[in-house]
Amino acid sequence: MLEHLLGQDWEITPAGGETGEAFFAQNNGQKLFLKRNSSPFLAVLSAEGIVPKLVWTKRFENGDVFTAQQWLIGREFSQSDMTDDRVVMLLKKIHTSKPLLEMLKRLGKTTLMPNMILAVIKAELDEELTSNETITKSIAFLEENIPFINSEEEVVCHCDVNHNNWLLSEDNQLYLIDWDGAMIADPAIDLGMLLHWYIPKSEWTEWLEKYGFELTDSLMLRMKWYVVAQTLNSIQWYKKKSRYHEMEKWIQFLNDLD
Predict the structure, then answer these.
(1) What is the pLDDT of residues 119-160, one digit of tens each?
(2) What per-residue confidence (pLDDT) applies to 115?
(3) Is the dihedral of CA 39, 40, 44, 49 positive or negative?
(4) Which of 84, 231, 87, 76 is nearest to 164 (CA)?
(5) How is domain 2-71 classified at the CATH fold level?
(6) CATH 3.90.1200.10 domain residues, the chain
(7) To 5 degrees, how large is the angle CA 202–CA 203–CA 205?
(8) Cα-based angle 222, 184, 149 (whole degrees, multiple of 5)
(9) In this predicted model, what pLDDT tens digit does every residue of 19-66 receive, in sequence order?
(10) Which of 139, 164, 188, 203 has the highest Cβ tally under 10 A?
(11) Catalytic residue among 9, 84, 85, 160
């Protein structure tokens, strides 16, 4: 199918990932990143300069839609790179973008509420995990604090801001990629993950000042709530994949969380 789209001269290779829907293509120095059935959201992300430039979109007779983006020479951020000021500024740009928010609403996305997250976690965690003391305490924390974490803030959240999704191009342009899980939600979803994973707690106040927030008790609680919720989801995912070493690492993370 892709050979028919691009021509026989293009070398096409899978790009990896969980879905198997992404590919690299190159021909005589031209390089493209291709993806099957990307959301129309990608066009707005490209226009906002948040992802590499969208080159074209093409639809097949069977309904499949392929997008082609610039395949940039660059590198993923390392964990130590995440303290770079460009990270906080790009995340602020995303969270304050009206075009991104309007597009997700047009695509039918509604606000992700804490009670919805908790219901999914409780439905998906298997019996063996729910008998673990650390996980039991974590679920109790989510249940007890759910009345206190509702927020009027509604922004576009990436929902997986780990360092592997930050791409620094050869010309020093920073991008945040892999938007399949984007939601309209409390910005504390992204802020909590980023701060808890990468930024020393002694630097949180200064980091949030650059972002434009004050480190209040309310924000602290909301960030912790979402980090606990996301970590429980990750634990279940790693268990399903039989990746027990990573699963145990995140259980320990919950145990150490203050």
Answers:
(1) 999 999 999 999 999 999 999 999 999 999 988 899 999 999
(2) 95
(3) positive
(4) 76
(5) Phosphorylase Kinase; domain 1 (3.30.200)
(6) 76-256
(7) 100
(8) 20
(9) 557 787 888 777 888 887 777 898 999 999 999 898 888 877 777 788
(10) 188
(11) 160
Q: For residue range 4-14, what is the model confidence (pLDDT) as tens digits?
A: 566 667 888 77
Assess whether pLDDT exceeds 90 at residue 82.
Answer: yes
Residue ranges, comma separated, of all CATH 3.30.200.20 domains in the chain are 2-71
Degrees to nearest 5, angle at CA 73 with 72 and 75? 105
pLDDT at 40: 83
Residues 54 and 167: their CA atoms lie apart, in Å, by 15
Q: Is 95 exposed, middle or buried (0-12, 13-18, 19+ CB in 10 A)?
A: buried
Backbone angles phi, psi at 110, to 5 degrees: -110, 170
Token pair, residue 183, equals 């939601």
Distances (CA, A) of 14 to 5, 11, 18, 64: 16, 10, 11, 17
Which residue type sits at 129?
Answer: L
CB 185 within 8 A of CB 111: yes
Q: Spelled out in words, what is the top-level CATH class assigned to the domain 76-256?
A: alpha beta
